[in-house]
Specification:
The chain is an alpha/beta fold and 249 residues long. It has a single domain, classed as 3-Layer(aba) Sandwich (Rossmann fold), CATH 3.40.50. 37% of the residues lie in helices and 23% in strands. Helix 1 packs parallel to helix 4 and helix 5 packs across helix 7. The chain is globular, with a radius of gyration of 17 Å.
């Protein structure tokens, strides 16, 4: 993987400032990821962890469909705003460094994040983030990153990045993610399955007439579309890792 990536926003203070600007807007957005997760994965009765949660929009949506949801972010401002927004009672928001998670091993059934790794240009840090997420995952870990195989989407971000640091993020190619996962599993001495999915690019399912459907229907239709569409047209790549702690390498 290449580690010479320009990242625009990479400190807690900088993200505090960004979330002061964007928290309300992001909170009101469509929880596309949450809708998909409830249909593509069995979240009922599960403990979920969202890393780099920011506004917590997806976790807020997921809370009624899970036993508990934990949001972590190294931006204290974002987590304070989330706690002040009257979240569901089974959702907790914690200020924490994802490189050093303060949770025991295998604490969560499902762990996920959206665009979080794209905020890191250092390969060593990304590998460490993978290791920590894997460590606290009991059943399934998901990492959504900006899709480097989608040339048009990448070009749009590059153009906007000239004037807005929010768009100065890292894009990953499918091979990079697969290499990261296999190397991370080997380093942990754990066997597991690794798969790639696509996510995003079908917003019409959540807007206009699509918005009239229940969230469960929107999520099911989106899940079907993601399976049928090629990876190169997805906004995000989804790295899915299912560790088997009973099978050591």
């Amino acid at each position: 993987m290449s580690s010479k990536i320009r990242i625009g926003i990479d400190t807690p203070d900088a993200w505090d400032a960004e979330w002061a600007r964007w928290f309300e807007r992001y909170s009101r957005g469509i929880p596309r990821l949450g809708m998909w997760l409830t249909r593509a994965y069995a979240t009922s009765g599960c403990d979920l962890l969202e890393l780099g949660a920011g506004s917590g929009r997806e976790s807020r949506f997921l809370a009624p469909y899970a036993r508990s949801v934990t949001c972590v972010d190294f931006s204290a401002g974002a987590m304070e705003a989330l706690r002040a927004s009257s979240p569901p009672p089974n959702l907790r928001a914690l200020t924490m460094d994802a490189l050093h998670l303060e949770f025991p091993d295998r604490a969560f059934d499902l762990t996920f994040h959206k665009g979080f790794w794209s905020c890191f240009g250092d390969d060593v840090q990304v590998a460490r983030l993978f290791s920590e997420q894997l460590r606290v995952t009991r059943r399934t870990m998901l990492a959504l990153v900006h899709n480097g195989a989608n040339a048009a989407f990448h070009a749009m971000f590059q153009a906007k990045a000239e004037t807005d640091k929010l768009y100065q993020v890292r894009f990953f190619k499918p091979d990079e993610l697969l290499e990261l996962a296999h190397e991370g599993l080997a380093k942990a001495g754990v066997r597991g399955s690794v798969r790639l999915h696509g996510f995003g690019g079908v917003d019409w399912m959540h807007q206009g007439l699509g918005a009239r459907f229940p969230a469960s229907v929107q999520g099911s239709l989106a899940a079907l579309a993601y399976r049928l569409r090629p990876l190169r047209v997805a906004e995000s790549l989804v790295l899915e890792v299912t560790p088997d702690p009973h099978k050591k390498k």
